[in-house]
Specification:
single chain, alpha/beta, Dihydrodipicolinate Reductase, domain 2, six-stranded parallel β-sheet, 13 helices, 37% helix, globular, disordered N terminus
Length: 348
């Protein structure tokens, strides 16, 4: 198929649904040819826009928020508009766009032709583009409007871009939140709350699919790395990466002497989880339970304007992954996080 999404086609095919969106902030959809059969009313202040329909996260969030069983905990927030174009050249992402566009259209979502058009119609933004290389460019457009934005994983395809995104958001005082859904796995949060006592160490794992346009851990390993940091907290000082054809392990040493590891699953059973070594007990956490725990946090973020995960923590997660990449290049040598942060223009 063509690597470029047909802009004219998706604008024309959205005309029926798009006619129902008024600038006063209320979207009403009635039975029509695209199969949407339920009236949807959205108050100004609760209109969500999606940038990027090249990931299943976009359709999963829309299905929950716009579905007939949307609960009060989503506070009336609904997806009202979406701009489909995410990645321009990652085939696995580009090929998803037509089907995912149709899926969200059937949920009463207007399909628009640019980020600028989207921002005229919404109050808050889900930046779902699967390609982290495009996030800085797209996020800057959102920042100009001051609208709160959730940036899905990875927040960027490089540590340098991640630092630039958070610096630009701080300069414009725009609320930004980014997280993997694995952070909010219920038994992970129970461990954070002290179920095992003080956490002395963690071994976390996740699938590690590789995408040549992103550093190795940024594309999919980030899920396991986010689990690791959720449990260990900030303070990682150095990283060493060990890799063979059969296995991938990244070892981090924290400032207080604790050790945490991330295992990227290259072969065999693919799953998400970890082992928590606590003061009182050893816990197994995982597996992934879906997107709703994260979505609840996103809605609270939209309501409060305060991110539950600090820019400093997310930046440290990306420094960990960047240090792992540098360790790989150096044949497995230990790499200091401060070194990669200084190189990227972050703290140090």
């Amino acid at each position: 198929m063509s690597m470029r999404y047909d802009r004219r086609k998706f604008i024309q095919s959205a005309a029926v649904v798009g006619a129902g969106l008024g600038m006063g902030g209320r979207l009403t959809a009635s039975p029509n040819t695209v199969g949407y059969t339920r009236t949807l009313t959205v108050e100004a202040g609760r209109r969500i826009g999606i940038i990027g329909l090249d990931t299943s996260h976009a359709t999963a969030f829309t299905q929950v928020l716009n579905g007939p069983k949307a609960s009060d905990e989503y506070a009336g927030y609904r997806v009202v508009a979406a701009y489909p174009q995410g990645s321009l050249d990652i085939v696995s992402s580009v090929e998803r766009i037509p089907a995912y566009t149709e899926q969200v259209r059937k949920q009463g979502v207007e399909i628009v032709g640019s980020v600028a058009e989207l921002l005229q119609r919404v109050d808050v933004v889900l930046l779902e583009t699967n390609d982290g290389r495009r996030h800085l460019e797209q996020a800057l457009q959102v920042f100009e409007t001051g609208k709160p934005v959730f940036i899905d994983k990875p927040v960027a395809a490089s540590l340098r871009d991640a630092v630039a995104i958070y610096a630009a958001a701080e300069k414009r005082a725009v609320p930004v939140f980014s997280s993997s859904s694995l952070r909010y796995t219920p038994n992970v949060q129970e461990a954070v709350a002290g179920k095992a006592g003080k956490i002395l160490g963690v071994d976390a794992w996740s699938p590690m699919k590789i995408e040549k346009t992103h550093p190795d851990l940024f594309w999919y390993g980030i899920h396991g790395v986010e689990t690791l940091f959720t449990l260990m907290g900030m303070g990682c000082r150095s990283v060493r990466r060990t890799r063979t054809e059969e296995a991938e392990v990244v070892t981090g040493i924290w400032a207080d002497g604790r050790i945490g590891t991330f295992r990227g699953l290259l072969k065999g059973k693919q799953d998400y989880g970890g082992t928590v070594f606590g003061e009182h007990s050893i816990l197994t956490v995982g597996p992934h339970v879906g997107y709703e725990p994260l979505l609840r946090q996103i809605i609270r973020f939209f309501q409060s304007g305060r991110s539950p995960v600090s820019a400093v923590e997310t930046t440290e997660i990306f420094a960990f992954m960047e240090a792992a990449e540098e360790s790989k290049r150096s044949g497995g040598k230990m790499v200091e996080l401060e070194k990669v942060l200084r190189k990227a223009g972050g703290r140090g």
